[in-house]
Amino acid sequence: MIKKIFSILFIFFLLSSISIAKDKIDQTIDKTTDFLKSITKKSLNKSQTAEFLNNYAITLEDERNQGVVTYIFDEKNYKRYQAGKVISEDGWRFTNLGKLRVFSGDIKLTWKFKLDKQNVIVIKTKFQPLGKEYPFTYQLKDKFFEQIN
């Protein structure tokens, strides 16, 4: 009789601890899902990125040891400007999945724009699982060209 009571109590505690663990896992999944949704909502999609690149000059310090530079994107290529002069140019395109791929010689970089209180570009190389965030500013291309002429 005592064995049955202990068995029933053991099963009760086992099931209740499983239930508590399941609730904790569900809460963690909900928090993770909310976090991922908040990240993706702030990023531009393919059509928004294309329109953004078509209209704006993007200024940032991109760690190519040349300081702050401005990117101007046209249909298939981009040019990097510093002090009003073109310092380099290369190609860019969208991948089949709609990601912006920017080429720098043999290096392929994936850019992801996040427009918010602080504008950030997440730049990721092909072999890095996570990208690095670079703050940037932007202005209309026409205004940029007026400033350098």
What can you tell me about this protein's structure?
This protein is of the alpha+beta class. It folds into two domains: 1-42; 46-148. 40% of the residues lie in helices and 38% in strands. The chain has three helices and eight strands. Mean pLDDT is 83; it is low at 35-41.
Q: Which bin fits the share of residues in helices? A: 25-40%
Shape estimate: elongated
Distance between the termini: 95 Å
Derived from helix and strand composition plus strand pairing, the structural class reads alpha+beta
Order of helices and strands: HHEEEEEEEEH
Largest sheet: 8 strands, antiparallel, barrel
Report the uncertain regions: 35-41
Tell me the strand percentage band: 35-45%
Summarize the structure.
The protein is α+β, with helices and mostly antiparallel strands and 149 residues long. The chain has helices spanning 2-42, 46-55, 141-148, and strands spanning 56-61, 68-73, 77-82, 85-94, 100-104, 107-114, 120-125, 132-140.
List keywords for this structure.
single chain; 149 residues; 2 domains; elongated
Ordered list of secondary-structure elements with their pairings:
Layout: H1 2-42, H2 46-55, E1 56-61, E2 68-73, E3 77-82, E4 85-94, E5 100-104, E6 107-114, E7 120-125, E8 132-140, H3 141-148
Antiparallel strand pairs: 1-2, 1-8, 2-3, 3-4, 4-5, 5-6, 6-7, 7-8
